[in-house]
Amino acid sequence: MGKTVLRLTDVQKSIGDKKIVHGLTFEVKEGEIYGFLGPNGSGKTTTIRMITGLISMTRGDIQICGHSIATEREKALMNIGAIVENPELYGYMTGRQNLMHFANMANHKVSKARIDEIVQLVDLGESIHAPVKNYSLGMKQRLGIAQALLHQPKVLILDEPTNGLDPAGIRKIREYLRELAQKEKIAVIVSSHLLSEIELMCDRVLIINKGTFIKEHNLHEKQAGEHRVQIKTKQTEGIDELIDCRIISDTSFEVTADEVEVAAIIAKLVSHNIAIYEVIPKQKTLEDEFLAITKGATS
Amino acid sequence: MINLIKNELMKIFVKKNVRVFLTVLLTLQVATAFILKNWLPPAERFSSYVTFSHLNFTITAMLVTIFSISLMVKSIADEFQQGTIKQLLIRPKSRVAILLSKYFAILITVVLFIVAALLVSMLVGGIRFGWTADNFTLSILLKIVMYEFVPIVFYITLAFMLVSLMTTTILPVTITMLIFLLQGNIVNIMTSLLKKYSDIFVFKHLSLRDLDANPLIGNGTNMLSEHFTLTTSFLYVVIHLLVMLVIASVVFKKRDIL
């Protein structure tokens, strides 16, 4: 893995007496897509606001490419491109004017060729010359990504980037973010309250709830721990005497076992002349986990 | 900073209402030449393009003040309302520079409005009333214009400070407009209540032209006591401007953008 481009150390935010984010610590490396998952109101956007310097931290530090957002704000922001909440742009200007406007705010000159390249990339075509107020939400989202990428940042932060996009659009953005991460080594941070989206897009995911770190998880690694297999047979009566299992219904039961053990179990069943119809590996999905976490936290 | 000001100017001039205002302002300069000429008794008709431009300028100054107050407030409050303030403030530019670029962009716009209006009214006045000025010369007119910039800048700065503190449109516009429109009454009340101590009130220093030695510029209505000269009075206003700019910048720098 590449070098760390974003590091949060014990970041805390309180407004008045209310703690909104409690001591978050995590790192994001270049070239990875990092998911930021939590139910609505869990402190995702607050954290993103702190990373981008829009609000102050009560405690802790955030470093972007080695520059602290609190003490070296401009150097840190040079390396960030972001959409915070909705892609808010100037409706009375054309897409291109919007891009020119934000290009003017970069620390190095953004060439006209770069702007054309970005427009091509997000596929806005001729609509780039139309006023943004006439754009669909999907087009605004794409223009938002375009303005975030203009100055070639090292870290791209997208808050709910697929909000309001149609399935084709979501897929396109997903592929595009992949490409960005792989080819240009950009670290992409995507927040979402939708697990399925994060699972499809991200390399690693951080789950937070009520401003508290719950779990960080690598989506490429198989879930450690339980390996469960569901087996369907003609009938399950008496099987629990034969092997250690949990009967689900008349025709199916579940065992906790790894690959080798499963093979042994099947051999045993066959030797007892029990017909096996189906063997289904049951992974405890992230979704179960996510639901358990959010349910446990709200009840 | 220059790029930031350019951006702000682009955002000002891309809007229709600014272009409409400029058109109305310039049309007015032409229209007065035809309307007022017939209304006024012959003695008060204009002796030259300078006196004509002077009359026009008093109208222009008022319209530009009112319009620029709302322009100033909207240029900041709209960013908060549309949420674009977030996009602005995640750029590698200091917050103070971003805020002040808006202020300077409005000042530049105001200068543009006034110069354009003056040029048009002089041209129209010259054609209609002749190019030869009497003892009310062009340099006197330009001096008056310079003096009148002081209250315009003051009210823009006041609006700028208020909107930086409140980030909404209605209250800063209302407060600034009220003070601007009631300025004369405020000064009168303060003077009669506090006598000479009312000089600490900055509103009494805004009509600097009253302190000018030339009777054609100052019209003898100086309400300030003797220890204030043109220079000290001007500096007193400048100090107020600086304080307002500092307050706006400090608050804006510390603000949490939600």
From TrEMBL, chain A:
InterPro entries: AAA+_ATPase, ABC_transporter-like_ATP-bd, ABC_transporter-like_CS, P-loop_NTPase. Residues 6-235 form the ABC transporter domain. It comes from the Bacteria. Pfam families: ABC_tran. Keywords: ATP-binding, Nucleotide-binding, Transport. Signal peptide: none annotated. One of its GO terms (molecular function) is ATP hydrolysis activity. Belongs to the ABC transporter superfamily. PANTHER family: ABC TRANSPORTER, ATP-BINDING PROTEIN. This is ABC transporter ATP-binding protein. It comes from Lysinibacillus mangiferihumi. The lineage of its organism: Bacteria, Bacillati, Bacillota, Bacilli, Bacillales.
UniProtKB/TrEMBL annotation, chain B:
Keywords: Membrane, Transmembrane, Transmembrane helix. Pfam families: ABC2_membrane_4. The chain crosses the membrane at residues 57-77, 98-124, 144-163, 170-194, 233-252. It comes from the Bacteria. The keyword Nuclease does not apply. The keyword Transmembrane helix applies. This is ABC transporter permease. It comes from Lysinibacillus mangiferihumi.
